[in-house]
Amino acid sequence: MPAPTKPAPSTPTLPAEVTLESIRAAQDRIAGRVMCTPVIENALLDERCGAWLHFKCENLQEMGAFKARGATNALFARSAGELRAGVVTHSSGNHGAAVARAARLRGVPARVVMPHNSSAAKLAAVRAYGGEVILCEPTVAAREAAAARLVAETGALFVHPYDDPDVISGQGTIALELLEQVPALQWLLCPIGGGGLTSGLAVAAKALRPEIRIVAAEPAGADDAYRSFHSGVLAPPAPTSTIADGLRGALSARTFALIRAHVDEVVTVDEAAIVRAMRALWQHLRIIVEPSSAVAFAAVLERKVDVQGAHVGIVLTGGNVDLDALPW
């Protein structure tokens, strides 16, 4: 498959705050606090897709999602003084639960701003880890405004869901593990929302294996990353419509710059494809993942990338789904 032509970036170059060294430091920092997740293969899915698929199961993290890595690194990178008033974040669910869990490990309070239409499973997860949930309207602006008010009122440290070098470095540890587990890896696919996961994976993977192909997959109903990548101009936040609630965030200037520098392609998939991918993962791997987690696999199933005959890593990002509301 010929390499896609990328227009020249139009955003200013940001400092190299996320590097292979910062990701390796994160790996040391979170060791023993976050699980090294397994990789699962399935011969029938390999045959169906014409490639060797290696599923990195971040849905098996204790709190059910890759977000445990970034949140844990961010909180354990901070001093006790910085955390004296606890932490504040905003989240559609998984980052909030991850911050609540990391805050509990550090012995500080966590307040999490969440949209009032968040899934019941994700609301319950935040509360189970001791996080205080503050509900808001389901828009990025409402989440940011509510979080800013809490920071002003409490003096707590704000931990951004993805626009934070420590969070991004923590997510990048997935690539370090996966390349050790599957040395022959030629492609690496992941879902993209705000870009923290994609940025961290891409920085680590390209530093260790420059020839590896990095592809981010996004719902067609929340395609700001796709539009930004292909235009070379950072698209502003826009209304979204997708069952993949964890991918509704918009890229930041930092994640956009990292993605433009290290990612080979961004593709989109429709809602029906996401549901088909979720179902196929249950039927063949016997695991249930949330819609956001299935998007990268959907891109392979729908032939959005030509991975024929290759070893392909696919990050299954989370499994926090409401079992009473599965989309099939």
| Cα radius of gyration in angstroms | 18 Å
Tell me about the biggest sheet? 6 strands, mixed
Class inferred from helices and paired strands: alpha/beta
Ranges where pLDDT stays below 50 over 5 or more residues in a row are 1-15
Question: What count of helical segments does DSSP give?
Answer: 12
Q: Which band does the percent of strand residues land in? A: 5-15%
Order of helices and strands: HEHEHEHEHEHEHEHEHHEHHE
Structure in words:
By secondary structure, the chain is of the alpha/beta class. The chain is 42% helix and 15% strand. The protein contains twelve helices and ten strands. The strands form two sheets. It has a six-stranded mixed β-sheet with strand order 1-2-10-7-8-9, sandwiched between helices. It has a four-stranded parallel β-sheet with strand order 5-4-3-6, with helices on both faces. Helix 7 crosses helix 8. It starts with 19 loop residues before the first helix and ends in a 12-residue tail after the last strand.
